[in-house]
Amino acid sequence: MARQSVRSFSSARKLSPRFFGAAVAVVGAVAVTAAVAARGHTNAEAGQATQAAKKILHAADAYAAASASAGCPTITELIEAHRLDDDARVEDAWGNRFRIACDAKGLRVLSAGPDGRLGTEDDLRFTR
After folding, report:
1. In the chain, is it the N or the C terminus that has fewer CB atoms within a 10 Å radius of its CB?
2. Tens-place pLDDT, residues 83-122
């Protein structure tokens, strides 16, 4: 019987191309699976953010209708005016506080999204 030698890292260059192809395929499959799982998790979080933002938007609309000269409300003002419940969710699914914006486009609730920074591609905007 022929004796097989133990391969060390220094002899890795002697391994077959088929072995490396299989290893690359496994690593690629793991990366794709992780990306799909992360995307699904992000979609679930976006759904949670949407529900919370709709409540804030409704409260801000009611507040603006009741006091036309009050300007753009903040979330704190909505809570103090009892337009938004004290236990209402005021942070998006990623832990960032929602913001209310009022301009020529109307009233909007903004979420900074997963990256936590406003003004980037992953921001969520909710309007009436």
Report:
1. N
2. 998 888 999 888 999 999 988 888 999 999 889 999 999 8
